[in-house]
Amino acid sequence: MPQEPEPEREDARAARRQQFAEAARAERPDLALLCLLIAAEADPALDEAGCDAAQIELDRLAGLLPYAPAGGPGAWARNLAELLGTRCGFGGSPADYRRLESSLLHEVLRRRRGLPILLSVVWMEVARRAGAPVYGVALPGHFVVGFGDPDGSHVLADPFAGGRPLTDEDTELLVAGATGEPLSAQMTTPADPLEIVLRMLNNIRAWAQARPEHGAVQLWALELSLLLPSHPARLRHERAQLLVQRGEFLAGAAELTEYARVVEAVDPAGALAIRRQAAAARAMLN
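Below the sequence we write its predicted structure tokens.
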């Protein structure tokens, strides 16, 4: 299991992050590539050849699907469930939430286990390659996939459960279980690739936050999130605080000071509190 990243050359990491930033700003972001670049942060042994092998595996799986099956969205959903869920054994269980590999695409392809969002990425990438009308659906607390027209005839399926088709009642229960709120139409709109990537990185951050010994994982997940064209500004504050926690007091103080400058126009009192945090961080060196 990948734990903290093995030491690697700084120029190699910088080149990979530059590639990630450029891929995130592409006119049509390559979701599989972005997922693999995230995985390479956790597992620096995942080189270009390893990323190519993962893409080839997605191509291979897509080649096992029938072309343009009769029956519309329901047929696509059934074929994906039969191939990936039944024949290949892709799925998930509560234990998968405790493993970092469950958020790494190459490991999900190898183990055929993962979090709902990574399994959904496998479903989407295989289906897309086969010509299916597929999209991701970022339900609160549980990511699923849709086939067909989001505004018309469509079918939702749950890759975490092997591709089980979801009725409206099933979907309502998933949302109610996660939030206690009723299902709204906005919750089932197609997810943008970069929204999917940010949600994946949020999952990794949450996994690492619950395990203080994995502060390095939390840090790189934050740093990749900050490379996305759109991200919550609060992530900069979180990164600064994490640097201080890791003993990088000057770097953390500098980040806090810069974040205070950014928020001062909308929250002067908050900016003052953040500057006090920066001063306290610098004092740790005395």
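The mean pLDDT is 91.
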